[in-house]
Amino acid sequence: MDDQNKQNAEILALENFLPYRLNQAAEKVSQKFAQEYKKRYGLTRPEWRTFATIGQFGVITAREICNHSPMHKTKVSRAVFSLEKRRWVKRTQDPEDRRLEHLELTSVGQTAYKDMVNVARQFEKNFIDSIGGEDAKLLLTALNAIERRFEG
């Protein structure tokens, strides 16, 4: 092995490293979608993820939100507080364990959530359409394979 090939073997070009590329691609798509919910609702990423998770599950605890959409508990706590100020989320203390609070959408929150679901679905459709038929199918197949490979 000559010196140039040896040196290239010892260097990791981050921009070509698959885990980094996956992260960068996900971040770019996430940032693009963040522009949509920021513009429409003024939500931060933790607020959006918290709101979407509560809407998905109906009634959920902050700890369960942290487990579902990996965020630190302080980010979830701040997001819940912000969503409460908007009157989109309400807390109910658990009758058996007073340390636990169950979170759910208010009627105003449910209306906003239904609208946001439509915005998210339209964003996803536009994104998939922009990739194109066969490439989109390949992307979804590859994502499924990656998720299966790293489950549990």
TrEMBL record:
Q: Which Gene3D superfamilies match?
A: Winged helix-like DNA-binding domain superfamily/Winged helix DNA-binding domain
User: Key word Transcription present in the record?
Assistant: yes
Q: Ranges for the HTH marR-type domain?
A: 15-148
Name the UniProt key words of this record, in alphabetical order: DNA-binding, Transcription, Transcription regulation
Q: What InterPro entries does this protein's entry cite? A: HTH_MarR-typ, WH-like_DNA-bd_sf, WH_DNA-bd_sf
What SUPFAM superfamilies does its record include?
Winged helix' DNA-binding domain
Tell me the superkingdom of the source: Bacteria
Pfam families the UniProt entry points to: MarR_2 (PF12802)
**Do you know which PROSITE patterns this protein is assigned to?**
HTH_MARR_2
PANTHER family (alphabetical): TRANSCRIPTIONAL REGULATOR, MARR (PTHR42756), TRANSCRIPTIONAL REPRESSOR OF EMRAB OPERON (PTHR42756:SF1)
Protein name per UniProt: MarR family transcriptional regulator
